[in-house]
Amino acid sequence: MTRLLAIIFTAILLLPLPGNNAHSTTNAQCTYENKAFRGSETINYNLYFNWKFIWLKAGTASLITTQIPYKGTQAYRTSLVTKTSKTIDRYFRMRDTIMVYFTPELTPLYYRKGASEGKRYYVDEVWYTYPAGKCQTTQRHLTASGDIHTAKHLYNRCVSDMLNSFQRVRNLETKGWKEGHVVPLDIAGGEELTKAKLIYRGKKTIKADNDQKYPCLILSYIEKEDGKDKEIVRFFVTDDQRHIPIRLDLFLKFGSAKAFLSHMK
Predict the structure, then answer these.
(1) Rounded to the nearest 5°, which phi and psi values hold at 91?
(2) Predicted TM-score of the model (pTM)
(3) Which of 44, 113, 131, 200 has its CA 20 to 30 A from that of 235?
C-alpha cells in the first residue's frame, strides 16, 4: 500500500524535462520561454487503484500555481497537495505538500517537500544558485527520526527537481515527433541523477473525470530495472500548447493504478 500510494502521488510529477527545448544544453541558467500558463492556475485529480478487479478511489491531488515574489524578485510558486481518501486512511494515511519557486523563465529557485506518510514525517529541501554559469544545489533532508543530512552538488548543465521539471516540460515542442521518438532524461533527486527516458507513443482522445474529452499525446516514462527497460507510468497530455496531464496509467508489480483530471481553472 505504501509503495502504491507513493508511486501514484509522485507520478503526477514524473513527466520530466527534455533537453531539446532549452536555449542551450550547457546553459546552467536554464531559461525557457513559458507559453503554457500565465497568472494563477488550479488543476485537480482523482486517484484510483485496482484491488482484486475493483477500482477504488485512493485520494485526490491539487496542483496550484500563483505569481508571487521570491526573496524580492518576480517569481511563480507551484504547490502540489495530496491526500488519501477516508477508505485508504484506514490502511495508510498520506498528507503531502510539495512546493517550488521558479522565475518567469522557469529557472528553478527552491523546492520543498513535507511528507506525512503513515506514522512517518520528513522534509526535503533544495536551494538553487547559479555561480559562474553553473548550477549548484544545496540539499537538506530532515529524517523521520529528526536527523538532518545536507549536501551540495555543482553541475555544468541544467538540473531540476520533478515539480519544477513538470512546469517546464509543459513547454515541450512535440511538433514533428513520430511514434517511438525518444528523449533521454536526467532527473535530480537524492544523492544521484536518475537516468531515464521518455518515449512518444502516438495520440488518443481521453475522457476525464469532469466528463470532458481531450485529444492527447501518449508519453511513456521508462527507467532501468535489473538492466532492462521498465515502463513506470504512461501519460496522456493535452495535444496543445499547455500539455496538461489528463490521465496517468501506472504499472505496478501487484496491479495497476490510474489518475484522472477532475477539475481545472
Answers:
(1) -105, -40
(2) 0.78
(3) 113
